[in-house]
Each structure stands twice: as C-alpha cells, then as structure tokens.
Amino acid sequence: MLLTLTTTHRPATDLGYLLVKHPDRVHSFSVPTGTAYVLYPENGADRCTAALLLDVDPQMLRAQKDAFELSQYVNDRPYAASSLLASAMARVFRTALRGASKDRPELAAVPIPLEIRVPVLRGTPDLVSRLFTPLGWTVTATPIPFEPEIGGDSRYVDLLLTGDIRLADALNHLYVLLPVLDDGKHYWVAPDEIEKLLRSGEGWLAAHPEKVLIARRYLAHRRSLATTALQLLEADQPVTEEEAELPVARRAPLAEQRRDAVLAALAEVNASRVLDLGCGPGALLSALLKDRSFTEIVGADVATRTLEMAARKLKLDRLPERQKDRIKLIQTALTYRDDRLRGFDAAVLMEVIEHVDLPRLPALEAAVFGHAQPGAVIVTTPNVEYNVHYEGLTGMRHSDHRFEWTRAEFAAWAERVAATYGYTVTIRGVGEDHETTGAPTQLALFTTEKKETKEVTA
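That's the Small RNA 2'-O-methyltransferase sequence above. Prediction below.
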C-alpha cells in the first residue's frame, strides 16, 4: 500500500528535514506485518514528494473476520490503506507526528502547502469528504471502477488531499482517519487506544462534526471505550471523578507494566547475565540494553526474521563496540537443549509459554529448567479469568495462543516445575488487580538456592 506527501514550499527539499528522512536515500524499516520503505520520487527545490510504501508479508497476517472461507488468502490487506499503514506511519514518521524538527523547528510549527495521495482507500466519496473537509483539506475522492466487463464502482476511492496544513497535523489526521475509513484494526483494541486517539486528535477532534463516528470506528465499535473517549473530548467540561476512575486515562499500557515487572524481578535476584527466551522483535532487549547492570544479554528466538527485526530495533550495526559486546542474538528452539543457554543468572519467558502447544511444554521445561538451569527464571502469561473485562473478546487474547490459564492452573504448573527441577517459586499479578478475576497478567519468579532474591537474603 502507498501514501505520498508532496510540498511546493521553497525549498521543497526541506520536507526531508521535517520527516527526518534524507531525500537521496531509500529508507527501510521492519514492521510487525512486513517492511516499510520511505523514498523520494521527486526531489527538487520547487516540488518534493516523499512516498511511504508498505510491503505487507501475507504470512504475518492472520485471517480477518469476514463473510467467506478464503478470506485468509483473498483479501485487500496488502494494498488498501488501513491501520496497517497508520501503524507504519507511527513507526517511520514518529518525530514528524510529534511536530518536532531539530533542523527546521520554525517550519515544523507553521502550515505549508501539502498534497497527499492515497491511491487505494476504502470508503465512499461522501464519507471521505465529511471526515477531511472540516480539517481544512480540499478533498478529491475518485471512485475506483470495477473492470469494464463487470461495470460500476468498487468500494474503494483514490484520495487526493490538498491544503496549507502543518505537517504534524496532516500526519495525525491520516493516522486517525485511515483506520476509521477502513473501519477495522489489525490488532486487538484495548483501553490504551483511547490515549492514542486523544493524543493524535488533540486540537481538532473535539470540534469535528463527525467525532462520534470517528471515536466509534477508531475504537472498533467498543461502546464503553467510545463513550469514555467522547466524554474526555468535551473541552468545556472538566473530567469528573467518575470519569477519572475509568480504566483508560493516561495509565501505562499493560505491555509496559509487564516489562517493568520483569525488570524489577531481575533486579530482585541481582541478575547481570540474562537470557530473553522467545525475545520477539526486542521490546525487553531494548530495556535490558539501557541498564548497564546487565553485563551480558542474549536474545533467543526460533524465527530468524524476528531476530532481524530485533537487530534493527536495537540498531546493533550502529552500537558502540562496548555496547555491542554486551548483547547477542541467537536462533534456537526453546523445546531443544542448547548448550549456549547454560550458565546464566536469569532467563525470561515473557508471554512465551502460551504460544507453545501443550504437548510440547514438557520439552520446553526440560530444556530451560533442566538443561540450561539459570539461577532464576521469570515467566509471564495471560490470566484467562481477566478476559471478561475485555469487551467483545471471544476466545483467547491472541490468535496464536495455544492455551490461556486460570490463576489456579498457572500456580499448579509453576509448583510442579519448581519441585521437578529444584526451584522455589513465587507468583504475583501484573496490571490492575480485580478483586474477583485478579490481574490481567500473572508472573512466576523461580529461584534456586544459589540465586536467592534480595528479600530472601535480607
């Protein structure tokens, strides 16, 4: 899928400074659903165009809820602008979305002539106009016709926006309205999506005549989330105590709370040499690398593509040698014994075990607890009892989860593993703790006598 940004501001090449992407290079970025490229098909003093091209990897997409059996294989996700493109924008234009520019701060703060084109976008010309015209854009939404032998127009338009708009505002308009027009998200919409909507809609969404439709579609038609977002948008009314207690406002996302809980557990056991098993694209590795108390860090994953994404996220090719010597990425299967994983202070399995088929879980236990034998093991996994609080969720939280355990099931598993392999275990919750269902994430800290926690030592 494709999006182009053009300006005729002179010198037009200043667009490269605003986007923090040099016009003479092709920039590539790994994203969870493929690869994003930024390039400049036009690069002159009078006119400059930046193109964002998202190459979607079909194997990294899950089947969408749709009306026919082949929707997993036959769908418009690779080419129609959607939340996939919005997420890629947030990844590659992060600084520009914030309105920051080290080299052209004065230009980032003022409107400039812009022309934005999205060649394939779901939506009717009427709806597109209702969404973008109030924001100061001149809208041209041309229906894309079917083949002549079929006749008529498809449900897609070729969108052209023109206007004098601040670049950060333009990008935030697109970030919100692309998934609104597509009327879908490629990921589970949690309460922290309200914060994204309010942040990106600051200065324009509260006064938008279609703000109700925008909130409902952006928040995947989850009524409670949309209601809360609309209440918080009421600029003339202060937030009431009741609204302030809603589980949406400015609270750290669960992923961040989970990461912090893992880091706290590592500090608790005085770990300096750490394994991140099933490291994925490197979210925890980034935090470990920032803490100099971790002198040796190994990220392990079965997927080489995922390790490549982690390497890019960590910018391993640009790290100083002293930093680079602290971290290593290795490809390995956690259900097989690997001597490279032996002898570490601690190992982390953060949201990993639920992706393993239950019949294969004993092999993981033997490989990690029995063969690698780290001094401590930290395991986090979803608490299925908490799922009732996720409105609209049916089944498990992720399509790749093989199981999700209750607190009793997780405790029984942890106690059996600890007894089998000579560990002691403590279990705690991560996230907001509900009196009936507990916390959304459960964490087990396994320790051995040779690696006692600070609390035990004291």
